[in-house]
Amino acid sequence: MKVRKFVNGWSLSSLLLVIVIVVGGVVIAQKSGGGKEIEITLAPEREIAGQIFIGGQVNNPGYYPIFTGDSLKDIIQAAGGLKEGVDLDSVELTVFKAGEEEPPQKININRAEAWLLEALPGVGEVKAQAIIDYRTRNGYFRDINELKQVPGFGDFSFDEVKDFITVND
User: Fold this and answer.
1) φ, ψ at 157 (rounded to 5°)
2) Are 147 and 141 within 8 A, CB to CB?
3) pLDDT at res. 41
4) Contact present, 102 and 50 (Cβ < 8 Å)
5) Which of 23, 35, 90, 153 has its CA at 20 to 30 Å from residue 114's CA atom?
6) Where in the chain are the domains?
7) Which CATH code for domain 107-166?
8) Burial category of 10 from C-beta neighbours within 10 Å (exposed 0-12, middle 13-18, buried 19 and up)
9) What whole-number distance in Å separates Cα of residue 152 and Cα of residue 139?
10) Other beta carbons less than 10 A from residue 163's beta carbon
11) At 2, is the pLDDT very low, low, confident or very high (cuts 50, 70, 90)?
12) What are phi and psi of 133, to 5 degrees?
């Protein structure tokens, strides 16, 4: 008889514990789940209308995609904004339609580091350093033809790189 009371007591205690856990879980679920549903929306993909070259007095000149609905302000912000103290007259914009072939981006020999100059055809470590030494001694190149005055650059070397270089931003 004592064994039967012991089993019934444990059974009753276990049953009460299960009921408390279930009721507690339901109460907690109701309190935490009563908020509004969260809705996640993604911005619609913008259609690329073409490409634009942004040059002149902007912080990061280069080629950028133009999206449908972009304003001039959006385009200039894509290039890092205007340099301090300049106005829109100093910005160069060249627009290319989607699918239209744009010219390759040129390397500015007035600003390029040695590793970038070495990417030019026929320019290795020695010629790249010669360009940097020349502009250090003489200041910025005023014209790409001035590159012929750099030691190691003759007409042949110049003809190899002339389509890939610029002295403008």
Assistant:
1) -60, -40
2) yes
3) 79
4) no
5) 90
6) 1-33, 48-97, 107-166
7) 1.10.150.310
8) exposed
9) 18
10) 11
11) low
12) -65, -40
